[in-house]
Amino acid sequence: MTKKIFQSIMAVAGAVLIASLVIIVGCLYRYFSDVQGKQLEDELSLAVVAVEKDGRGYLEELQSREYRLTWVAENGEVLYDTQSHGEGMENHGDREEIQEALRNEEGKSARYSTTLLEKTLYCARRLKDGSVLRISVSSVTIWVLVLGMVQPILIVVVVTLILSGVLASHISRHITEPLNSLDLEKPLENNTYEELAPLLNRINKQHRQIDMQLSELQRKNDEFAQITQGMTEGLVLLNEKNIILNINPAALKLFHTSRSCKGKDFLTVERSLYVSRAIQDALSSGHSEIRMEREGKEYQLHINRIESKGSVIGAVVLAFDITEAAFAERNRREFTANVSHELKTPLQSIMGSAELMENGLVKPEDMTRFVGHIRTEAGRLVTLIDDIIRLSSLDERCDMPFEQVDLYEAASDVMAGLADIAAAKEIEMTLTGEKVSVKSVRRLLTEIIFNLCDNAIKYNKIGGRVEVAISRRENEAVIAVEDSGIGIPPEHQARIFERFYRVDKSRSKESGGTGLGLSIVKHAVQYLNGEIDLQSSPGQGTLIRVSIPEDKNFTDGC
Questions:
Q1: 20 to 30 A Cα–Cα from 418, which one of 231, 233, 468, 505?
Q2: What's the angle, vertex CA 119, arms to CA 117 and CA 121, rounded to 5?
Q3: Cα–Cα–Cα angle for 26, 27, 30, nearest 5°?
């Protein structure tokens, strides 16, 4: 703005200067031309009187370097000329001033040189005898006058422009200083030009609108931040160039990065070729999905294109932890396959024995053995089905009766029921601890103790031991079952509570069982909101410790 004001003032000063010079030079030139014309008329008047009185003699005696007198006869012949004496001069009858003087007694004219740098003024008057006396004088034109004044004019122009520049700079600064010092944050508090009042009012109104919009935008941004901060799903916002605009904590943890990744290419955070292709597919087609594994967990990435006004402006990446769902799906498939296998084996044995008996291929003395075999396999089927039903009810969290249960007494009853099995393997069973009463489900507690003790006997050594300890710890009842058996290798310890999972399948077949015992223990403990702790070393035995809350109300139903 200062530059424009300065240029405007200088332009006005220059225009005024040029106009002033033109007017002054024009007025001076016109004034001096008028003065010269009147002097020329006066000189002619004097010369007319003298010629009419003395005739040619006056002209011959006249000496003047400035004025030229020419005496012309009525027919245009030059009678005398003060500069050429009329000898050899052409006829002047066609001259404008001569013709005008012959008609009107007096005539005037002016003629310019070919270079336009000199002008000659002519003034003629008719004498009494009909001849014409003409006087002329040479005069410079206005251009010669201007050329003669070039030096002073340039001095005036330079001085004027310098003064105008200084004045323009001062004025422009003086004009713009209040504008530069405006407080646009508080426009109505400025003391400046009245002409700026409408502008300042409009700025103040826009400030209020912007503040409201910023406040609303900040509120929405805070809401978005709080929502994304609390999400368990990973969220990444990308622009159309694959640059990270926003990323929540879950995504930071998933992709092992920090908040400094904002503004960087997503490829620097996740270098997987499959993820990059999925993002490109989403940008082109609108949506893509991909699964990936990270640190033993399985994630599903949903990538959706973001559009605005018909153009693609980025993509949003949502990462869902589907580890449990995938694990459950895997367990469901494995459970179905295992159940089919476990049911099929005894059924095939039963059908094979029954078919032999039906076809009369069994000797009478072997009939009892075959019938016993059928009954044993049928018992296995019933046990398997009962275990499956128990697991199903535990999965669905069906209501079960709660009552006060003495864990020491329950453990004693279970161990009495397993005494014969333990004796067959020469295993010593001991029960230690104190009487601990808990409000819980008797059947589930009994099954927990039974399955733990049964496993401790089955996978023990001949002449081994099984120790059961009942104790109280803060607000929990603790059941600890320790054996001196074969132990569990570390790589299998995380899976022994899965359905039908067996560490040594050949040994499991020899020992019998459905493979659901520890799975029932796990689900029963979960139903009672308890916890399981496993400690085992191959060849040194196993310790399983179960903690049950002493008093807990349950309202879940199937």
A1: 505
A2: 170
A3: 85
2-148 and 325-390: same fold?
A: no
Q: Does the pTM exceed 0.70?
A: no
In sequence order, what are the residues at sequence separation of 6 or more whose Cβ sits closer than 8 angstroms to the Cβ of residue 179?
Answer: 1, 192, 196
Q: Identity (one letter) of the amino acid at 386?
A: D
Two tokens, residue 480: 């600890």
Q: Phi and psi dihedrals of 486, rounded to 5?
A: -75, -15
Strand pairing report for 465-473 and 244-247: unpaired
Instruction: Of 103, 101, 116, 129, give the one whose Cα is nearest residue 44.
Output: 101
CA-based nearest residue to 168, from 379, 6, 325: 6
CB atoms within 10 A of CB 382: 11
Q: Which fold has domain 231-319?
A: Beta-Lactamase (3.30.450)
Is domain 2-148 in CATH 3.30.450.20, yes or no?
Answer: yes
Residue type, 137: V
Tell me, what's the pLDDT at 432? 92
Contact criterion met (CB below 8 Å) for 98 and 76: yes
Would the CA dihedral through 440, 446, 452, 453 be positive or negative?
A: positive
Phi and psi, residue 40, nearest 5°: -60, -40
What is the rounded CA–CA span in Å between residue 536 and residue 487? 6
Question: 551: Cβ–Cβ under 8 A, 6 or more apart, which residues?
Answer: 438, 439, 475
Between CA 336 and CA 326 the distance in angstroms is 15
Distance CA 467, CA 430 (A): 5
Q: What angle do CA 539, 545, 546 make, to 5 degrees?
A: 145
Residues 275 and 299: beta-carbon distance below 8 Å: no
For residue 108, is it left (φ>0), alpha (ψ between -120 and 50) or beta?
Answer: beta
Residue 282 burial (CB count, 10 A) = 24
Taking the CA atoms of 144, 145, 146 and 150 in sequence, report the sign of the dihedral they define: positive
CATH of span 397-549: 3.30.565.10
pLDDT at residue 200 in the model? 78
Predicted confidence at residue 336, as pLDDT, reads 64
Cα distances (angstroms) measured from residue 455 to each of 173, 227, 359, 504: 98, 48, 40, 13
**Phi then psi for 98, rounded to 5 degrees?**
-65, -50
Tokens of 332: 């469901």
Domain boundaries, the chain: 2-148, 231-319, 325-390, 397-549
> 3-state class of 377 per DSSP?
helix
Q: What is the pLDDT of residue 384?
A: 67
Chosen CATH of 325-390 out of 3.20.20.370, 1.10.287.3510, 3.40.50.10840, 1.10.287.130: 1.10.287.130
Show the CA angle centred on residue 47, arms to residues 42 and 52, nearest 5°: 135
Query: Is the backbone of residue 491 left (phi > 0), alpha (psi -120 to 50) or beta?
Result: alpha
Stretches in the chain below the pLDDT threshold 70: 1-2, 85-88, 114-117, 140-146, 148, 178-180, 189-191, 193-194, 331-332, 334-343, 345, 383-384, 387-388, 390-399, 499-515, 551-558
